[in-house]
Amino acid sequence: MPSATTNSHRPSELLSRLASSEPEVKLRALREVKNQIIGNRTKKLSFLKLGAVPAVAGILADSADGVVGKNNCNNDINNILVQSAAALGSFACGFDAGVQAVLDAGAFPNLLRLLANSNEKVVDAGARALRMIYQSKLAPKYDFLQQKNMDFLISVLNSENENVSGLGASIITHSCQTSLEQKALFDAGILGKLVSLLEGGSLSQRDASLESLATIFRNNSEVVSKFVGPEIGRSLSSVIDLAKDRHPRTRLLACMCLIVIRNTSPQLLQNIGIKTKLIHILLELLDDPGQVGDEAPFALSSLIAQKEDLQKLALEANAIDKLQYHLQRGLLHPRRHEGILLALADMCSKLESCRSKFFSLQALNLVADALTNDSADIRTAACTCLKSVTRSIKNLSAGYFMNEMIVIPLVQLFLDPSTSVQVAALGALSNIVVDFTTRKSIFVQCGGIKQLVLLARSMEPAVRSNALWALKNFVFLADNRLKEGVFSELTASLLSSLICDPEPSVQEQALALVRNLVDGCMNSVEFVFADDGLILGAVGRQLQRASKPEIGIQGMYALCNVASGNEFHKEAVMHQLFPQMVDKNQSFMIKFLQSNESQLRTAAVWTIVNLTCPSSPGAYGRLVKLRNAGIISQIKKLENDPCVDVKLRAKAVQGHSEAFGVQPLLEHQTN
Amino acid sequence: MSLFWIVIRQLAEIEEQMATSKKVFTREEWEKRLNDVKIRKEDMNKLVMNFLVTEGYVEAAEKFRMESGTEPDIDLATITDRMAVKKAVQCGNVEDAIEKVNDLNPEILDTNPQLFFHLQQQRLIELIRNGKVEEALEFAQEELAPRGEENQSFLEELERTVALLAFEDATNCPVGELMDISQRLKTASEVNAAILTSQSHEKDPKLPSLLKMLIWAQNQLDEKASYPRINNLSSATLDDPTV
């Protein structure tokens, strides 16, 4: 028979004792609940399910009222307050369901009241519980634009009690989101307070202060410049010093704060010494076995993302070797696993030298393994990493990625329950299918095309757009047989409806797919004439109302490719340019020729070059029609265009008109 | 640590003087040099206080404070609590220790899964030691197994611990070292360190690392010079150089 001690600890039995009217019994039960749930997620959950949180919150509320009501400070009440606050804090520790339950039970305002208690232990317990709540995204936000909230914050930050002032910093980290709030906090002199915690505070105060400083700086160069401003020496160098602190967590937070400052104001912290130092500290923190080591790769990622110089420095600091070393050790915490993959993705996003290092360490296999990981975040990160390394033209050309190890798991991810995984998998695949060898068949054989077409019908715009992106890359410079395979799967009706998709990014990719489909031999052009020219009509309609230049560019290049075809094709394009002869001022050609986007002007003029090529019999008629619509005179204005492409094509059109003796119409003086 | 830098500086100076041959220092010369090194009394006192506080000698710390006027960098009352926790683990009263830690600061065990696991593991070891087999099994299943699911390395440690149950004589089995008193001390010092860290205090006293530096510095110096060496750290007497 199990021992009596274990039995009396049963949650349900404990709960009934919580309801006891005897303060002694109640107190002991509270303490037991607290001791059972601390550090024990399973217990937190089982107590939560039994409704322990509202019970404890009720005791807290009653006792807090008791203090106010009778105005006595007797020990029992204080003990009950301490134990119930500690229990609620533990329910909220690292456990979102617990935070939600504590908030739902209305405990938040009562915990706040404890901060004003005269007993230091009660204040500590209240502040600790609130800090736990503020570790979660679910914690209530403070609007600092309201004076009373700002006053509250200042009073908390000024508290002598370390837990209370630490709570103030956590509230900032959690609540401050807009640049207005950042400015308001700055104007209220909060930075000075945080810096003093940084310089003279305890370990936990320093850490909390570093986090809130980063929050107030993020993307707000105005606040950063004021912080650094005249006192560049002191405040900033305090943060720099903490990056060398003996506590790993402090080092990490100081690095993250410096990274935020750097990413916000790129002119700051530019000297090579500090950049290298940050990289070395973060790489060293990877060795930390706990949470710090799990977060370190994310910080590294934000440091090097989009920055070639830092990627180069990190490569020299053996970042890829180090990341690969941790990756191959296996049994990683999911968060760390994800972070390492993302850091590798950023490392390999721009420089071929980084990718070469990555391949030389056989890291590709490790990334491929992660494609089938149980965690959706890890699968997404693996796809992102794959997307970066497949930018290597050298390895792409060698057909290094078009194999079962990569392609089959990627195609399986197309059906992943998580949209972000689907989108990331499509992103990686988009690179891989730009394959210059004849190995594209592997992708077809494993049903890749069918899957992509299926995803092009997804409810998620990002999935539709990325699926079209992959298809677009797949048919890029592909032979006609492969294009036919794609087209028969896709059908003219689906493609034309995607061209008219409500989402602009989908429209753009659909038009780009058409552009690549009809690029190349004459036979390819026929695709847009299937089903009575359904697709060509859709392209024309979309160009009429093109909402973004990108859509105009892709659509115009599609028409341009069609216009390179035979006489029939060219006339069909003319028909799209002048549907039922709309007013010439409304013609999208004029609008495109006047666009600020040089690519759009290029595509538009190039189309006219193809339409007026003197070797084709109908060229003269088309020239006249274009001249009458004012297009030729518009092109004449582009002969000195700053963009060389535009200039050359405009001269070509001029050459064609001169060959036929067609002069541009003089523009009428309108006023 | 200023003392450390003084030693290093001295070392560097000596090194400069004897680029080639190994120099011999007589006792008089050496003592004169040592006398030239100025170390503030308050720094020495702080070092002692730091040791007493970190190691938890609360009564000695209290006396030392009164005698030397050195203020401890931590509330002496918290030392008593910390020592009570440490002692409970050392005596095998792990449950009691856990409750005391939670009273001190509930965040310690809630945010330190590894320490929490080690304490629970120690609790299991104590149950096994006391021959409470059924209770041990139940405890392992209910309290420890879920932690093993969360963390692979915990699972391996748990398996090692449960293996104790498979042997008639647990103390003489391949994992017998878990039953050893040193395992209790290991766990106790882990809790002690965690409490210190939660109080923003360093978990190790400075004095031992200073002594380590002394040994290191003497070893470095041995290659360059003969001098009266400190060989007995507890008496710190200078032994004449062997020439």
UniProtKB/TrEMBL annotation, chain A:
GO cellular component, one term: nucleus
Gene3D superfamilies xref list: Leucine-rich Repeat Variant
GO biological-process terms attached to the record: proteasome-mediated ubiquitin-dependent protein catabolic process
Subcellular localization: Cytoplasm; Nucleus
Keywords, ordered alphabetically: Cytoplasm, Nucleus, Repeat
Classification via PANTHER family: ARMADILLO REPEAT-CONTAINING PROTEIN 8
Protein name from the UniProt record: Armadillo
From TrEMBL, chain B:
InterPro entries: CRA_dom, CTLH/CRA, CTLH_C, LisH, Ubq-SigPath_Reg
Residues of the CTLH domain: 78-135
Entry-linked PANTHER family: RAN BINDING PROTEIN 9-RELATED
Protein name: CTLH domain-containing protein
